[in-house]
Amino acid sequence: MATQRVKNHGIPENGESSQHTNGHSKPGQVTTEVQHGMLYYAFNQTIMPLFLILSCPNFVLLLYYTAVHCDGSFLLMAQKMAALGPVDGWRQLWANVVWGDPIICSIIGGYALFALVLMIILPGPTAYGPVTPKGNTPVYKDNGFFCYIVTLIAFCGATYIAKTSYGVSPTVLYDKFDVVLATLHIASIIFCGFLYLKGLIFPSTADSGSSGNPIFDYYWGTELYPRVFGLDVKVFTNCRFGMTVWPLLILVFGLKSYELHGFVDSMWVSVFLHMVYFTKFFWWEAGYMRTIDIMVDRAGFYICWGCLVFIPGLYTVTNLYLVNHPIHLGPVLSLVILVLGTGSVILNYYADWQKQEVRATDGNCIIWGRKPDVIRAKYTPEDGKERESLLLVSGCWGIARHFHYIPELALSFFWCLPGLFENVMAYTYFLWLCILLTHRTFRDDEKCGAKYGKYWDEYQRRVPYKMVPGIF
User: Fold this and answer.
1) Is the pTM of this model over 0.85?
2) Percent helix, strand, coil in the chain (nearest 5)?
3) Cα(first)–Cα(last) distance of the chain, in Å?
4) Would you call 86 helix, strand, or coil by DSSP?
5) What's the pLDDT at 25?
6) Cβ–Cβ under 8 Å, residues 366 and 439
7) Phi/psi-derived region of residue 362, left when phi > 0, alpha when psi is between -120 and 50, beta in every other case
8) Strand pairing of 139-141 and 227-228?
9) Bridge partners (DSSP) listed for residue 76
């Protein structure tokens, strides 16, 4: 078994004592420091992962319940749940879910097979991810944009044929969205179990291993870059499923709105901004494969269940809400939101482009009218071979270490704004993204600090703000 044991944070390996002998400690006495370490370990590697594994499916279904059965009001939902009590409320949440619905299972299974076929047959140049701690270099076929375009064309064609020839609409996915979420959840739980065992028994690379805690291993994953029959699992879960099902559901919800209310500008302003963002994402997909999501997060419940269920369930919530809240913005407000939202996408892409251009040219390019200022950060992964990365200190990246998150947050706000301010639910994704990206700035700084050491210290000194200049 080609696995390695990951050290437990704060817990002595192999049961040895880490007690300090200072003349006052009795044999066998556990120090306060070790006790705190044990509590920290238990909370972070058992209690919190177990809580998230059990609570996240209920949270996602609760969003659907709020949008469809509580008029998009969290307050009304809370009142209903309080009246029922925690047990009956939970039963009510899941009471109408139909397990094993043949139509939904066929649609989800058929799409997954379709996406896998596109991954294999569509052409694309070879792209490389960053070198892993074990010295492995991930290799990808960069055909994400082609997969995205072909999928959209196939969806539009299938929708037209189904509606005109058979009187069937893909909005069945809206009508049975609770069943969609439940089906995705069950399939994902099984899939994550397979990945857990695969990483222990036949891992794809040396970047794998066990913490010794099966709950944490299932949650976090046992492999960094698993492959099945030569296909990269993260590319499928993150890009071919999560990031492609998301726009498909946005279109489905837009179509449902049109079937119910005719053309409503608020829905289609939000849909348009989403589609601009997705087009940018897949055009830049090779760059995404170098982000912290891919570089650090193992393929377990956290990232795989998140992409297979959490993205369809939470990231689409604004448009799910707008189906039953047809708000008419008018041409002026619609145009303002479209311009500001599209500008946010362009700025986000421009910031990412600066970093890619500097690294692709080894700094021999022009950023904001002059040669970029860079820190040549040397680091040594576990394979012992010294390598170098360029840390960009000028352009957008001289303003803040995670400047690109600002336009990303702005975009998410503008595609939520068509819901106006009747219910907070319209802004659920924006609020979630604020939490996610703020947390990610700390994760990324910690990762880069451990990787680059003194070079990252210098970068933080020269670019002191994480995301918002003068504030944070």
Assistant:
1) yes
2) 65, 5, 30
3) 45
4) helix
5) 45
6) no
7) left
8) unpaired
9) none
